[in-house]
Design goal:
By secondary structure, this protein is of the alpha/beta class. It is built from 12 helices and 23 strands. The longest helix has 17 residues. The structure holds MU-OXO-diiron. The site of MU-OXO-diiron has 9 residues, from α2.
């Protein structure tokens, strides 16, 4: 049964989606599923660009068989060895034993680490090298750490198609719409694209900037990532977003409030701050760290200029879920942000100082000394210091 789609003359999307998987990488919630994209080029020589995850292997193999129509498959281009794109590689090779694997030297090392030595033909390619398929040619662009060291992209010269591996991908299944202009792009897709970028590729901003620099020199008409929609109409929007994300520049001047509260007292302080900032026409988003997966919080930190962390003091330290968020911020190296701290404690409030100290290793990060400290609950006697905290924060955001 046909389950592929021609995306331009003789170039096909041959991927599929998993709607049953709950955690991508066994870590990130994917309520809208995930797609594993693969592409087929039919020319004088035929080529498959990356394979797929185990979960959709059968439909993928069917797709390739249907498109090769029992003829040979000449090349399998391996852009990325992470198993969500390489689980079907050996099975594809078993159907097409004469196909040549096109990869770089680092890919070969990873291939052998996962699968052992292979009898298959291997064509090793380097940065800038081209593979002629007939009417079409692929030019390979090394993109180490976007998001593994072996990653390479493939630029199809005739139609200006960038096969971009994990770059420009997103969480979310392909559910009929395959191009950006067919989907409800502005309502939800960009959020999931940001969350995917921030959590999967976010640590590697410098390497993504190098890819963007290379992209500037190419005439790109279409981007075909390994996850999510094919980008055609939204290219300038997405390239602009990627420029900001890779540079760790906030998209929104505003306040992101994340609170850790056990009995609603710290929550009340967080809501009060949100309410007052909103009255000042400052864009505010607010989350409870305990019931929001950290991947969504990381995504929101990529978006906002100012982050207010409000935490109850717990066992003399930071509330564990807040501590986990802070460790993730550091691991993903989200710089160029301003942090404000609110603490609560009934006998020895210490979480603000501890949160601030935890983030001191971050470069190009402002950690405000304007700390708001509460004892047990927000009271009338706290209002002066609360208003002072909000005034300084407001001036900072508007400044
Ligand atoms: Fe979608 Fe890095 O694998």
């Amino acid at each position: 049964m046909q389950n592929f789609r021609e995306i331009t003359s003789n170039v096909y999307w041959i991927g599929g989606s998993d709607k049953r998987l709950s955690l991508f990488e066994n870590l990130f919630p994917i309520p809208r599923g995930v797609s594993y994209n693969s592409y087929f080029i039919s020319d004088e020589k035929s080529a498959v660009i990356d394979t797929v995850d185990e979960s959709i292997k059968d439909i993928f193999i069917e797709n390739v068989k249907e498109l090769t129509k029992k003829k040979t498959l000449d090349y399998i281009v391996v852009q990325h060895m992470e198993p969500d794109h390489s689980s079907a590689l050996l099975e594809l090779l078993s159907h097409y034993p004469n196909a040549t694997l096109v990869m770089n030297a680092k890919t070969q090392t990873l291939f052998e680490q996962f699968f052992g030595k292979t009898e298959s033909k291997i064509k090793l390619v380097a940065d800038g090298e081209t593979l002629n398929l007939g009417k079409r040619s692929l030019k390979f662009i090394m993109a180490p750490m976007v998001h593994w060291p072996e990653v390479m992209l493939s630029y199809e010269i005739t139609d200006g198609i960038l096969f971009s591996a994990d770059a420009f991908g997103s969480f979310g299944a392909i559910e009929g719409a395959i191009f950006d202009y067919e989907a409800d792009f502005d309502c939800g897709y960009i959020q999931e694209m940001r969350r995917y970028y921030a959590n999967i590729v976010g640590k590697y901003g410098a390497q993504v900037l190098k890819v963007l620099k290379t992209a500037e020199s190419l005439d790109i008409k279409m981007i075909c990532p390994l996850h999510g929609l094919i980008l055609k109409d939204k290219l300038s929007l997405i390239l602009d977003k990627y420029g900001k994300w890779a540079s760790y520049l906030p998209e929104e001047k505003g306040a992101l409030i994340i609170y850790a509260s056990m009995y609603n007292h710290t929550k009340k302080v967080a809501f009060k701050i949100a309410d007052e900032l909103n009255k000042q026409n400052i864009k505010v988003n607010l989350y409870d760290v305990s019931n929001t997966d950290v991947s969504y919080l990381i995504s929101e930190i990529f978006k906002f200029s100012h982050v207010i962390l409000a935490s109850v003091t717990y066992n003399g330290g930071i509330y564990p879920k807040m501590q986990n968020l802070i460790e993730d911020i550091k691991a993903l190296n989200i710089v160029n942000r301003t942090f404000y701290f609110v603490e609560n404690g009934s006998w020895a409030p210490a979480s603000a100082r501890l949160m601030k100290t935890s983030l001191e290793t971050m470069k190009n990060t402002v950690l405000s000394d304007n700390i708001l400290s509460i004892r047990s609950s927000l009271k009338e006697t706290d209002m002066d210091k609360l208003n002072n905290f909000i005034d300084l924060l407001t001036k900072d955001i508007n400044g």
